[in-house]
Amino acid sequence: MSKWYLGLSTSGHDPALALADESGRVAFAEATERYLQDKRAWGAAPDHVGHLESALAAIGFDPAADELVVASSWARVKANLPVRVSNALLPASDGLWLRGLQAHAVEAAGASLLRLGLAAEQPEVLRFDHHECHAAAACYSAPFADGLCLVIDGEGEVGAASLYRVRTGRAERLWRSWGPGSLGTFYAWLTGQCGFDWRAGEEWKVMGLAAFGTPDPMLVEALQAMLTIDKGRPQLGSADAIARAVRAAGAYRRDAGDPAEKGADLAASGQLAYAMLVDQMLAACVPLGETNLILTGGCALNSSYNGTINGRFGFERVHVPPAPADDGNAIGAALLAWRQDHPAAAIPVARTSPFLGTAIPRRAIDLAAQAQGLASVTQSAQPAALLAKRLAAGSIIGVMRGAAEFGPRALGHRSILADPRPRDMKERINNRVKGRETYRPFAPVIAATQTHEWFDRAQPSPYMGFTLPWQAEKRDRVPAVVHHDGTGRLQTVDQESNPWMAELLSAFERETGVPIVLNTSFNVMGKPIVHTVQDAMAVLATTGLDGVLLDDVLIEKSTSPAAPLQ
Amino acid sequence: MSQVDIAEVSDFLASEISRRTGVPQSVLGPSTVLVDIGLQSLDAVMICGEIEDKYAIEVEPTMMFEYRTFGEVLQAVGELLATV
C-alpha cells in the first residue's frame, strides 16, 4: 500500500495537478490545459476526471490498495472576505470573475475522487497558503537549499508578494504584503494598454515588444508611481498617482487593431517601470545578507527582468523554477501535504527535472508511423544525429519525446526545433507553422558549459527563465534567435538533467560548427503545447512543419525539402 | 509577547484607525462601532496587515470583520498576542 499526495492548483485559471510519493518526490505534474487542449483552461477542474485518471495510471496508482491525500493551493476562498474588488487598475468585472472561478475551484477540489470511485463522500482537502505553495514548489527545483525566496504575483491570500527565508529547503515567511498593490496586476493593466489581453496570457507580447521601444523617462516615472514599495512590500499608489499614470499612458496607448509598433514605447516604459519597482523590492532584501535568491510567482515569468538580477543586491545565484505561475502550485500543495505527514523532514531540493508530464504511448507512435500517403518514416537508433542532419539542412521539426515538460516552456520534449543560422528562419517558422507576431523572439538552446562563450552575464537558465545579452560579435552567427535588442531568452542544457538535448546540441555542432539550436514550443498560436501524438500529427498535417520526431521515429512530409536518409 | 502591553496595542490600533478614517483618536472608545465611523473594508484588511507586521504575528484577514467595536477588536488582538 502506498500513500500519494495529490496537489491541485485551485486558482480557477491555469489549473494543474501534481502527485508526490511517500518520499516527497514529485512523480507527475501537468497543467490541465495540456489534457484539454484549451489555453489556460479557465474554470476547468484541476482534478478533471479524465486527466486525473490518466495521471493516476501514469504513476501506477492502485485504487484497491493505495491512498490519496488531496491538497489545494489556496487556504481560503477569496470571495468570502467582505472586501470590494479593487478596480484601480483592472475592471472590477475581471476581479469578480476571477473570484468566482477561484471560489468554485477551491470548493470543488477533490470531487473527482467520487466519480473515480476513490472516495465514498466528498474527500477532506488540505488547504495551504497560496504563496507558501509557490515557495515550496520553487524550493523543490532550486539547486541550493538556503537563501531567500521572493514570491511576486497578481494576488495571494492577502496581498501580492511574500518573502521567505529558506533553510535546508524549508521556507519560513519573513513578511507578506497586504492589499491590492500588485506587480502582477500592474503588468496585466500594462498589457491592456499595449492593446493585448492579459486574460489570454499576452504579457509575453509586452515583453517582446518592449525591445523595439524607447522608454520615456516621464512616462516611466508616472507608471512607477502607480505602486509604491514600502519595506519591500508593493502597495497601491495614491488615486492621484494612478490617474496621472493613466493619463500619461493614454498618449502612448495602442488599441488592439493598431500596428504593434505603436505600443513599443509604452511597453518599453512599462517594462522599465516594472524593473525599477522589483529592484526596490530586492534592494530591501540586501540587509538580510543572503547570496541565493529564488524568484517565483507569476511575475517570475518576466525573463527580461530576471536576467538582470544576478550580480546585483548581493545575489550570486538566482533560481526561477520551471513553473513559477499558478500551475506550479500543484507541486507546492502536494509537497506541503507530504510535509504535514513528515514534519521533521525538509522539502527535497535540487530536483531539477521538469519532465514530469505525460509520456507518449508506443502504440500511438506505431499507428502514426503506419499512416499512408502523408509521410516518409525513418526509425533511428541515433535520433539526435538524424535530427541534427535534418535541422542543418533547413527542416523545421516538431519533437515529441519522453515525458512532457511541466511549466510554460518547451524544453526539448515538446518543442519545434530549427537551425538558428539562417537569417530568415524566424520568418519561415512564423509564416509556415506558428503564426506568431514577428516582434516576438525565438529562443536559443545551448550547452551550459558553452554559455559563457556566447552570452554576457552567463548563468544557468535550464527552464528559459532568464534573458541575457548575446556577445556582440556572435549575433550574426545565429540571427534567428537574437532579439531586436541583442538578447536571447536562453535554455541552458546539461547532460545530467537533459541528456536528449545535450546529445542533440553536440550532434548539431558536429554538423554545423554552431552549438545552438532554435527552440520554440510545439503548438500553433492560441493553442496549448501538443499533448498527444494525434495533436502533433495534426500540426504536421495542417502547417508547414517539415516533420515530427516521435521518440525515435521521424515522420516527414514527402515534399519535405530534406530527402529521407538512405 | 508574553506580557501584553494592552495600552500600547490600544494606542497603535487607534492611530491606525484614526489615520484611515480621519476620526481623532480621542473620539475612539471601547464601544465605538468601526463601521459607524466610516472604516472601509479594505482599510480593515490593511490594519490586519499593520498588526501582523508590527507584532510579528500571523493575523487572519477576516479578523477585523468578526468584531464590531474598537474594544472587541482590541481584545481579540490582545488575546492573539498573549498566545505567542
Keywords, please?
heterodimer, A: 566 residues, alpha/beta, 5-stranded mixed β-sheet, 18 helices, globular, B: 84 residues, mainly alpha
How would you describe what is shown here?
The complex is a heterodimer of chains A (566) and B (84). Chain A is 32% helix and 19% strand. Chain A contains 18 helices and 21 strands. In chain A, the strands form 4 sheets. A 9-stranded mixed β-sheet of chain A has the order 13-21-20-14-15-19-16-18-17, sandwiched between helices. In chain A, strands 3-2-1-4-5 form a 5-stranded mixed β-sheet. A 5-stranded mixed β-sheet of chain A has the order 8-7-6-11-12, covered by helices on one side. In chain A, a hairpin with a 2-residue loop joins strand 20 (547-550) and strand 21 (553-557). The N and C termini of chain A lie far apart (51 Å). Mean pLDDT of chain A is 94; it is low at 562-566. Helices cover 57% and strands 0% of the residues of chain B. In chain B, helix 1 runs antiparallel to helix 2 (41-55). Chain B is globular and about 30 Å long. The termini of chain B are close together. The model of chain B has no long low-confidence stretch (mean pLDDT 89).
